[in-house]
Amino acid sequence: MRGFMMRLMPGKMKQAAEIESRQWVARCKHCGADNSIWDFGGLRYGASGRPTKLLKCPKCRRHGAHTFEKRDPGSWQV
Prior knowledge:
Layout: H1 2-8, H2 11-23, E1 24-28, E2 34-36, E3 52-56, E4 63-70
């Protein structure tokens, strides 16, 4: 889905969408690992709130709830 949406956007908007998507972080409820939404294959641009989604954590390999929040890129580690 991300690829389809990115194809519809003009060049500067694509860059802005990627930068903002990388600022959105999903935190695993099991191990506490932080991963960017972009690394999960997602896209969050112009979004707000703190939704929770079921995802597979790349660190602990468990399926579970991940809470999304927007952060400064230097304030988290993979």
